[in-house]
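ARCHIVE RECORD
Type: protein–small molecule complex
Small molecule: glutamine
Source of inputs: curated submission
Record status: active
Notes field left blank by submitter.
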Amino acid sequence: MEEWVEGSGFLVARLVREGVVDGVERAARVYGRVRSWEDRVRGFLSLRGFDGFLGVVRAGLERGGPLSGLVVAVKDNIIVEGFPATAGSRMLEGYRPGFTATSVERVVSAGGAVIGKTNLDEFAMGSTTELSAYGPTRNPLCLDRVPGGSSGGSAAVLAYGGADLALGSDTGGSVRLPAAYTGTAALKPTYGAVSRYGLIPYANSLEQVSPMARRVIDVALLFEVISGYDPRDSTTLNHRWEGLAERLARQGPAEPGSLKLCVPEELLAAADPTVARVVEDLLSKLDWQGASIERVRVPILRHALPAYYTIAFAEAASNLARYDGSYTPCRARDARSWEELVVETRSKCFGPEVKRRIFMGAYVLSVGYRDMYYIAATRLRRRIRDEMLRLTRKCLVVTPASPVLPPRLGERLSDPLKLYALDVMTVTANLAGIPALALPAGRAGGLPVGVQLMGAPLGEEHLLRAGLLFELEAGAYMKVPVEG
Ligand code: GLN
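STRUCTURE (tokenized, with ligand):
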């Protein structure tokens, strides 16, 4: 078996199709891992009962398709009929949506079995999953550390083997940081590649529903299934990646000699030396094999973090205006007027970070300050995008996925700026709308280090093929036995 599919969900699905592996028995073993890990990790906010789960596995096997036999976890800001959708907020407690997100519909039509909904920072605002109203998720690789965020629940569940694939959302790094901290892989697709119908919005101009898995080939498989035009999301592009995973499996990793990589000095310098060293070591291996590696200066990237947060706050404030709280069980009990109900419910049912963002967003959009903050940020965004489009036309841009090793629980909570700083590597791809892949680069002191590759718009295939090479060279991916 080719190394790049060993231990992958892609291979499991193939073996199930060929009748070599019993899909139901294997899925039951995956469920067993959830049972043995979940108390310690708390990756799920809601989980299907065992019998119900086996029912959807069987249905997926009967339906057939590329995900038949595979177990899929879904971040709780993506809507699945029959499950609650809290988005990690008390504001949405008790909400039972009567429809399903397009991305999830596609997973189910492809034969995948949804096992449950995973924890996240409230409304996907955060980088550690500690800001969930339902308590933090722990990193299964090291229980006193965070799994990254905001899609930390999905990443943690993948890392302990409680799912083969997972859906997350990425507004400024929310699948890539969790991948970096849990030794898994994730792709933030080109803006518009995947439908956001059924995603509870945080910052629409930045975010994408995003595939997560333990192996790059599986990220490709899930991406292929969920991407493509959707009449229910007018921002989707008319572009499909049919046969992507099969093609990658057949053709294998990119030839090192064909790879042109650019490493922005500003971003490498922003990483802790321990993290930078792991990424540098991997780059030297690739260099030795014939990849071309160019150090570049992209000074505008220093403004990516403030530009991102200004825009994200503004969009968050607009999006969250919809929650008047009249329907939530968390609502204020003895309000005397509608205004009072709204004010008191929003004060009570939103967490402190969400409220901070509503205030900041209203501020940067307010008369007198709009030009100074919001408009200035959109201008920076345009320059960052132009620069990244220029760069990704000639090379893949390589950075660490996170500037630091997975933080300890509580370590980043005292000061919001410390939390926001975790996103310094990842926000650029969202501002530019370009695809970005995070995958394991190696370890430092036993903890995982992730590397990020950014490519040209719609350049996912090239990006993933390069990812296969990085993955094999690093050799740091999880070696989970196929039998689950
Ligand atoms: N940490 C970033 C934020 O809080 C990104 C979150 C995300 O990608 N959803 O905005």
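CURATOR ANNOTATION: The first strand starts at residue 44 and ends at 47.
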